[in-house]
Write a structure and sequence with these properties.
Blueprint (H helix, E strand, L loop, with lengths): L1 H18 L1 E11 L2 E13 L2 E14 L2 E14 L2 E11 L2 E10 L4 E5 L2 E2 L11 H4 L9 E3 L6 E8 L2 E6 L4 E8 L2 E8 L4 E6 L8
Antiparallel strand pairs: 1-2, 1-14, 2-3, 3-4, 4-5, 5-6, 6-7, 7-8, 9-10, 10-11, 11-12, 12-13, 13-14
Length: 205
């Protein structure tokens, strides 16, 4: 009986290690004081592999037109290095943009919609998906999985960081408290979006 119990315990431990640890985050997306969407985010760790998954939904009325946008990203790291990523944005039921990135042994193959970019030869160790789960202390650049470009990170003090998108010089302000991200503000030409963590409950002091 003791032997069977031991095997049972070992089996449980092995299964736990196999499935790994999953951390989930939820965000409200607000603009002009009203909720216009939400985002679910997860990070799953299985051995040396880490999988990030973000899924956002926004619904906005612009003048006489209603915009319904979904954005989904899936990113895979292994041993700290970005291995692959896929990002897709759908607007009113039609695919607006798709970006895929894949490490091929000595470079990344990057494709945005129908265009294949020149290979990136330097391995990536910190990207936009990681910003949701790790404060970028002493990190000055984050790779954008949606554009294939590096974004500059500018620390502002007090756990606040300005992240600049090189495609359009758009600012994203990331807020952290005790190393935990609590909010993101994204400045668009028409309005500023605020992504506010819901799952934290009371934000730690």
């Amino acid at each position: 009986m003791k032997t069977l119990t031991a095997y049972f315990i070992v089996g449980i431990l092995f299964t736990s290690q196999l499935w790994g640890q999953t951390i989930r985050q939820t965000y409200q997306i607000k603009a002009l004081g009203s909720k216009i969407g939400s985002m679910n985010s997860s990070r799953q760790t299985i051995g040396q592999d880490v999988y990030y998954h973000n899924n956002a939904l926004l619904e906005v009325n612009l003048l006489i037109k209603k915009i319904r946008m979904t954005a989904e990203s899936k990113t895979h790291y292994r041993a700290g290095q970005l291995i692959s990523s896929r990002n897709e944005v759908v607007v009113n039921g039609e695919v607006h943009s798709t970006t895929t990135i894949e490490w091929q042994g000595n470079n990344y193959r990057m494709q945005v919609n129908d265009s294949v970019y020149a290979p990136l030869t330097s391995p990536v160790f910190f990207s936009g998906s990681v910003l949701y789960y790790k404060e970028p202390v002493n990190i000055r650049q984050a790779f954008s999985e949606s554009s294939g470009l590096y974004m500059d990170i500018k620390p502002k003090g007090g756990g606040i960081y300005q992240v600049v998108d090189p495609r359009n010089n758009r600012d994203m302000i990331h807020y952290y408290k005790n190393g935990i991200q609590t909010q993101i503000s994204i400045k668009h030409p028409l309005l500023t979006l605020h992504m506010i963590r819901e799952d934290l409950g009371t934000i730690p002091k």
